[in-house]
Fold these 2 entries.
Entry 1:
Amino acid sequence: MHETLTRGAGLALTAVYAGFIGWMLSAQPQTIAQAVGGVSASVGAYSVDAQSFDDGLVFFRNDQFVEARAAFARADPAVRDARTQFYIAYSYYRQGWYRSHRDDALYREGVIVVDRAIALAPGGRLIVDDDNLGMRSADELKAELEAGLTRQLSDFNPLRWLESRK
Amino acid sequence: MSALREAIVLPLVFLSVVLAASLRPGAQVTVVPPSLGSLVAGMVLFALLVRSGAIDPHRLLHPDRSALANLNGLTVLLTAFVASAQMITMLVPESGVPALIAWVVLISLLSQALAMGPDRSSLLRGLMVTFGAAFALKFIVLATLSSPAEGRMARALQLLFEGVTLGGVTQRTPHTAEGYLAFLTIVTYLIGVAFLPSAAWHMARIGPGAHAEVRLRRVERGSAGHPTESDTDTKA
């Protein structure tokens, strides 16, 4: 009986450990926080730091995008929360938006983050209910960021200067 | 072999080797899976372990054992194989001429060992030397050559060396912790291999000539389960 218990426990332990290694190989966490957050998210125990998220939101609405991203990163250290990642991507959009042109480097970062947000959202559908935002879905944000990265004839249309930031 | 060792200790030791050998610490930690080449080399290494008697699959998988015990045995075999493959991924340089040379030398050493048919203790000693040499090459020699030089003279020499070798020798500079982690991984792997259930037989060497005396070493299991050896002389 004791031996059967030991063997069963060993098998279960090995399966859990092997599963953890498999998850590490596929998810590629880059920090301890990401690894711990990923494991806790897989058992439904992960949550963002509400205080840091609110701080980030205040910075975001004041157009302090670098500070906002720092606060959002603090709120979601494991990079597991779709809504927080959406705001980070949005901060790249707003910071890189100029009336005359778009900042390609910031937009590229934005595309990476919005892709991550979409991947984290259940079913890939992410809608953020915030009246302050001109775009409330991750799909709109992604399209806008990608449009900013492409070069087309309409970029030279002077009427474009009349567009407003979303 | 006790159920605890077979079901818990050995799989966890080898899985720890897999995890530690796949980690690349640094500002951004990466987790590297075993390469395809190392899977093949790992298979050869595993075959060597079986052939030398370092691991006896019959003591882990056998119709007389229960299904659960056989599952534990299979787990030990699988984890030992993956750990062997991951060890090779960890020890072989990542790119350039050093990677090519290391692969050629490693394959040659494994093939040579297969041809020689070493016994368990010889194989363990050989593995220790091979892994030690690979460790020294990657984490001491190549790491020193690839790390940023401090003085002007050293920088000039490094530039000259890179020019002569067309940049084919320098590697990614490993994080300080990586070498220590690799060393610990090698030691853990070798301890794990030493604790594997070994075969109850030894390789016998036959001397030349028709009347050569063949000395067979028969290993018998004592009452406590520990192997005891008795020598039997026979005439060929």
Note: Chain A touches chain B through 20 residues (CB under 8 Å).
Entry 2:
Amino acid sequence: MSVSTAPAPATSPETHHEDTGLWSWITTVDHKRIGIMYFVTSLFFLGVGGIEALIIRLQLFSPENQLISAQVYNQLFTMHGTTMIFLVAMPQAVAFFNYIVPLQIGARDVAFPRLNALSYWIYLFGAIYLNVSWFVGAAPNTSWVGYANLTSTQFSPGLNVDFWVLGLSILGVSSIMGGVNFITTIINLRAPGMKLMRMPLFTWMTFVTSFLLVTALPVIAVALILLAFDRFFATNFFVASAGGDPVLWQHLFWIFGHPEVYILVLPAFGVISDVIPAFSRKPLFGYPVVVYAGVLIGFIGWGVWSHHMFTSGLGPIADSFFVASTMIIAIPTGVKIFNWMATMWGGAIRFTTAMMFAVGLVALFTVGGLSGIMHSSAPVDLQQHDSYFVVAHFHYVIVGGILLGMFSGVYYWFPKVTGRLLDEKLGKLHFWSTIIGFNLTFFPMHFSGMYGMPRRTWTYRAELNVEIYNQLSTVGAFFLGASTLLLLWNIWKSLKSGEKAGHNPWGAPTLEWSIPSPPHHYNFPALPEVRSREPLWNDDERAAIEAVTLHEPATEPEMPNPSFWPIVVAFGITITWALVMTGIWWVPLLGLAFTALGVYAWAFEDPFKKKAAH
Amino acid sequence: MKSVRLPLGLLGLALLTACAGEYPQSSISPTTDFADTIHGLYVTIFWWTMLILTGVWIVLAYILVKFRERPDSPKPKQIHGHLGMEIAWTIGPALIVVAIAIPTIQAVFATQEVPEESLVVEVIGHQYWWEFRYPENGGLVTANELHIPMGTPVSLRIHSDDVIHSFWVPQLGGKRDANPLRQVPEGQDLKYNWIHFTAQETGTFMGQCAEFCGDSHSLMGIRVIVETQEEFDAWLGDLAAGHPQTVTQSQALNATTEGLPAPTAPALAQEETGQEEAPPAEDPGTVEGRNLFLANCSACHAINGVSEAGVIAPNLTLLGRRSSIAAGLLENNVDNLVRWIGDPQSVKPGALMPGLEYQGGRPPVVWPAFNLTPDQVRTVANYLYSLR
């Protein structure tokens, strides 16, 4: 628990921060390395999900197109959604949690470093397992929401849904562990003086998101386990003809699914709540209000799920309740937008790429938020639900909100992670091409939806007259795809020859900018004392902090040892779930036995035991 | 930001002024009271959101221009917040939300109110076609093309026979899911979903399934023919009459002895009463087509007056009058019928109908491929197309 606050021992500790090579990455428990692995993996799957999207867009380029079959299309759109949510957006946020939060609160690592590694390896193995389905020709094909009873063995007899049920179960384990870890870290490992109401907004939003993770993921776990029982053990939870209820699945899924939306978007809000003040040279306007708005969104987010189900026949009373709760949640979201704008008001705005992406979020997330107001009106939603209008809406939220926020974070914190700045010229090109490609892709979808094109359709009839909108979307999608290559090129180029950053290139106010870039493996040689919300903007406070944080200690603080048990246990958990697929009851127990061995060895490993002398 | 505002505003206007003729599945060209209510609400909310969006973007643009850092910029005043402003921009949006919520909740109740008297039509979703039953009109059944009278309140009673579908004909109003009927304990009512509306215009309106339901979800079209009460009554009459055989008793007996289902009662009845005025002799192709239908198709499909035993597939009475086949997918003509009957999987993947090569059905009960020659398929197609 008190890993990072443990006083440095008198004996000279071993150093492993210079360790390189594959083995050092496989066994690492350093939150920064794990953050980097999360980021790189999520970027890879962004490419995978992006390519899936591009094939979808090619198929929809013209009406009644036969480029790919309906069966392949259904796998592509299912995996596009599943990949982007579970393998890209969530882990990308977790990448930032990992790298940034301990630095922002003045900690040397997360509370449970090995658990953190375990989370990552489960994520990686789960992602691989889910995508192995492509190679056996049975990728999930019942959409990312997997509505019952289409997912029953009667209507989906193949392995497709098995991969989906088990894959998501594996990934859920990872997310719950991550949530527990960050809650504990933020509660326990803050530097002296770092009161809750002095925490940077990104840390605050991580805190709220972590609570949502540990509370929402179990709900989908329940739904998935019920479905797994239906599929593998012939129960009838969702089988209507046997008295089960397919609509129950929708409730369970969306009780998870709507908090999930905030799991995705709150970290992005957190990022820009740090970026906007830094580049306006002004503290965040209404800090407590922005914090409470985030907390309130986290709470109310639990009471809006049935707005995804207005067409399912809940009756007017339930409809009205969810209309009201959904409209109420718009208010704290709006308050955040206004506070960001008020932060910029009267500031001295520097248009770095990070700031431009943050402003892009404010401008474009608003579009998605406002079309969300339209759906919150249940009768209007009866027209818009499951049409391309909704596809437009949630891509404005997810790309216009989350992705832009994450890109802002990439440009903002890249110098901290690598010690080098990303190229600003390329960055601005990346920004503008993203904005153009994004709007060109998703704005026309409002029209194809208005004119009656349902989502999740492999093709559409020419007489609908929505071809032009689909063509614009397809062109935009390729533009957007190409713009993302600019980011990759920028990262590659800047890693090799980017301008050296120094420890605080932006003159930002928060604690992560008080330590060298990149940080030492122990982050803080000694713990700084925090006296305000913007510690590096108060000259005497900054001087006091930097005297500690930039100081090379005579003896390095003791840090936990690398461990390969997390990857072993992660492998065990993954194959346990994967072996459920065999349908033979005792086969998964082999995986469970393997997992148990790993956990046993892990439990008796001393995290601080010295390595053999080398 | 500034440069995109104008075009977006214009696009926004276009959102409200679309012409229905160009967009047959448009959700903003209402033709019923239900669709009108929704559209009115949508327009109200649209303008509120446009107002907010324009306001936010104008202020944002002003901030970005006015407060950009210049070489002579002084250090900004370190303001931490302002309680009055926080209250203002909490209450302002809250009032707008209330302004939207009141008409919304009124509409929620109004659109779900059960009319005192209405024509009930049962809508049943199947993978991947629609069945329409008229329980108040002798349980008449048709498929994929729903006929309703203009000016009469209609209540669609919606459910599914397999997975969840969603009935969406945008010009008639919003969608409702077709849920499979859940088995309930005795004494409890089955749970249906309902759409109530009164059509205000005649015409053919297009829609399709809006809840992902499997391989051919995108190929599950709906057409609704709104006609005058007289036309509707006439259509119902024709549907009830069906296509009785005009064959002689001996031909009918022959057919029976060949192991084919006997002609149904109305056909025989007509024959007995129609002795004075002998019906015109039937085209031999029609007779052969019907016999092939009876031998190969009638286990699943019904044709009123011919064979009404098949209930698991679309009822084909008056098929020749329909504008499309395969649930709105193909134009109705003999060539397309030939294509559809001969090779349904290439037209609609996952369809349960067997073809000349494919088996049909769904495991564990699989039906063999049709035992027909391509010529026989054409004969059947010609026969079906003649059902007017």
Note: Chain A is about 65% helix and 0% strand.
